[in-house]
Amino acid sequence: MPGDEPPGGGDAEQETDVERSRIVGELIAGLSGLSPSEVPGALCRHCVALLPEVAGLSISMPADGSDRGVVLCASDDVAARPAEIQFTLGEGPCREATRLRAPVFATDLACAPDARRWPLFSAQATKAGVEAVFSLPLTGTGTPLGTLDLYRRTTGSFERRSSANRTAGRRRGHPDRPRP
Q1: What is the pLDDT of residues 127-151, one digit of tens each?
Q2: Are 74 and 41 in contact (CB under 8 A)?
Q3: Measured between alpha carbons, how far is 32 from 95 in angstroms, rounded to an integer?
Q4: Per-range mean pLDDT, top range of 5-9, 143-147, 166-170
Q5: Cβ atoms 72, 59 nearer than 8 A
Q6: How far apart (Å, rounded) are the C-alpha atoms in residues 144 and 165?
Q7: Would you give the DSSP letter of residue 155?
Q8: Which residues, 6+ apart, have CB-to-CB distance to 117 below 8 Å?
Q9: Where are the alpha helices (DSSP H) in the chain?
Q10: Inter-axis angle of helices 119-127 and 77-89, to 10 degrees?
């Protein structure tokens, strides 16, 4: 019935599905023909290419139930260095996300509260050029499997608008505008 459509038009869900299909298609095309050992690193690099606000991405796992860990893959040195630093120093958002089994967002490593939570990691990460980290836990049946970590060279949170919304906005003639 007229008026029963969700705000913003009835095809928002369809646009999101189309955008998801496009992203999956790009990932599959980018990984096609690679050997199994090449897939993790390539997946990280392709995910970073799809997330313009991200400078690097890594996936890490705790090792043998101890405080040690291993970086499974990283998109580049921007991501590999801070991922390794967290396990070397024993502190950082990745470690906390694993412990809490919840996302941990550090939007400004040079200032409190992030610099206070992980003083050693924050100092080393900013020295390596990383200003913000977003650690998302990877769990299976309640057991922490590791984290997916997103790194930024600038401070701040991610835009709230999804890539599907940005695509829809461009189609309607409203290009993305920088945030004030």
Answers
A1: 999 999 999 998 888 788 889 999 9
A2: yes
A3: 33
A4: 143-147
A5: yes
A6: 32
A7: -
A8: 96, 106
A9: 12-31, 39-50, 77-89, 93-100, 114-117, 119-127, 163-171
A10: 160
The label of the residue with tokens 């705000």 reads 7
Q: What is the pTM of this model?
A: 0.73
Question: Which residue from 67, 89, 80 is spatially nearest to 151, judged by alpha carbons?
Answer: 80
CA atoms of 46 and 126, how far apart (whole Å): 24
Q: What is the mean pLDDT of residues 25-48?
A: 86
Backbone angles phi, psi at 148, to 5 degrees: -110, 120
φ, ψ of residue 125 to 5 degrees: the values are: -65, -45
Tokens of 67: 């405080």
Tell me the average pLDDT across 3-11: 56
CA–CA distance from 110 to each of 47, 124, 165 (Å)? 26, 10, 31
Query: Is 32 a residue whose pLDDT tops 80?
Result: yes
Find the farthest-apart pair of alpha carbons in the chain and give their distance in angstroms, rounded. Answer: 60
Using the CB atoms, write b or e for 55-89: b if 16+ within 10 Å. bbbbbbebeeeeeebebebbbbebbbbbbbbbbeb
Q: Which two tokens stand for residue 14?
A: 């369809």
Kindly report, residue by residue over 82-115, the tens digit of the pLDDT.
999 998 998 999 989 988 989 999 999 999 999 9
Q: Is 159 helix (H, G, I), strand (E, B) or coil?
A: coil
